[in-house]
User: Fold this.
Amino acid sequence: MTPDKGQDMTQDGAPSMTQDPNCPVRVYVPRDSAARSVGADAVADAVRRAAGAQGRQVDIVRNGSRGMLWLEPLVEVVTPDGRVGYGPVAPEDVPGLVGAGLLDGAEHPLRLGVVDRLPWLARQNRVTFARVGIVDPLSPQDYERHGGTAGLRTALALPPAEVVAAVTESGLRGRGGAGFPAGIKWKTVLDRADELKFVCCNADEGDSGTFADRMVMEGDPFMLIEGMTIAAHAVGASEGYIYIRSEYPDAVATMRAAIGIAREQGWLGERILGSDLSFDLHVRVGAGAYICGEETSMLESLEGRRGQVRAKPPIPAIQGLFGKPTVVNNVLTLATVPVILANGAKAYQDLGVQRSRGTQVFQLGGNVARGGIVETAFGVTLRELVEDFGGGTLSGRPVRTVQVGGPLGAYLPASMFDLPMEYEAFAAAGAMLGHGGVVVFDDSVDMAAQARFAMEFCAAESCGKCTPCRVGSVRGVEVIDKIVAGEDRDGNLALLEDLCELMTDGSLCAMGGLTPMPVRSAIAHFSDDFLAREEGTV
Amino acid sequence: MTTSASDVTTEAAIGAIVAAHRGERGPLLEILHAVQAELGHIPKEAVPLLARELNLSRADVHGVITFYHDFRDAPAGRTTVRICRAEACQALGAADLVDCAREAGSPIGGTRADGSVTVEQVFCLGNCALGPSVEVDGKVLGRMTAERLRSVLGEAVTS
Assistant:
């Protein structure tokens, strides 16, 4: 779904079309924390001051980010042609920009043109991210004007089993990394007879290279609320929790504010939108434990306990939060549900390749020239992402490797960049698509150090419940140190491989089970980095 | 046995916080966040108080506090600087920032003796396209450089 551009223009463009100097000009300056990290708040203040000095009235909307993060802070001005962008704008650029006619969309070296027509955005297929960066995240009117609540209204008119069937037919798979079909999980919960059931959203987006969950929560929070409400109707749940990591204070604040507004709108609470559904939602904040992104560990944490992984079975769909049947889905999975219901399962299913249906929200980060959100149908190649969208490295040096799927994903060499981005192709190549995070490294990277870090990170963040993960990771660091020091290289490489096999097969969850993936891929593709170092070169 | 003024403050604060979270499911984490927000850290004497209020064992409460990196048992410095050390920031020189902090007399994991700055590591602030990132008192700063970090630390020490 793309928002109706024509409607967008009349709604948002109306004030400036009259060109009446007394009519406020609408200016968008993102509130997204990435934009704020490079000065968006100061830019918004500067625009207000500079406009005031010119005697012009401005209506500054703090939107989410368009996802072109290298252009942040991206200032957009509503003109008769559409939303004209300027970026990246530093606070000190603002007086000059406003003086040059920014409020009328005038020419300037920082002027990018009409943002919707920029090739980087126009080449994408924004389904989940359709509204992010476009709307005021906390305006329910904006939300409805851009298609919000249509999915929920459709769902509420259907019996729960048909909602579950629509999600199953769409082919939607869990976006948190594991890629489990969402509809099958929902059906398991629907089939339980328990009075009390829960819907939990895993917003513990701890993997480096991922920020799409955060951008949805900061940029289109009602969409997540709507998705969870549809899930509640589909499975018969009455209570929901969003578990957000503490490193995301802006997302926590925006979600809490949005929940309050949604209650006032009748989108949460008793008899939602006049239906028989009653459902309420609460935000819970993590406390800096990476492992709590694992679903059973997250459930323990939600119960107020140490985030230790649970053995499965029983699966959370049968015995989840407080022992009750629980849907646990990632932010993007739940946020994609409304559009599936609104436009039909087939429209979503028609996108993508093989068993990877719909779109994936790829996230380009690390040493990349043009980092941000690339939402497109599954099947795009890694090369298209890294080179065409990403523009290569920020440093200007050659790309040596990318890590796909977070800290537990494989490091891939440039020779594998023609891999299509879909779950099965990646699995067959000994890698993992995961949540679609892509972290780029230039040729200065030391792959033995990256492999060591994978083990070190696992040692620091292991919940401690199972031995392969808790002890194996510590041993892994030691063995890699010996290899790099040149101590019985072949023997220790064999030992490391043996350890990796044991961790993969013997760990309770993906933390210990997948830590060997970056390690093994680094050894397989960059074996020279594991040769003994001269003293002082490490 | 004498009761110090700070014990009384802790007890009163915890009583009020627990009361505010009555009726919530599994509230311990929420309560610990609130205690730390109120007192700046989670004092040792909070453990038996929370155990009693929530009908948990002291071991349970201690176990939860020590499991999570966010909870501290001593106050932080007046400024808290967190340097992201996760992969996306590593790719843009996070290690140099760690070295820079150490050379400036604020190594990771420590609070300066004058109580001005605490420097910690963090794994991912969700700002992976604009790294390397550093968080200063809850505010994320992207595209950090060693030079800028030195000035952030310098200002924090003199403030």
About this structure: Residues 55 and 91 of chain B are 47 Å apart (CA to CA).
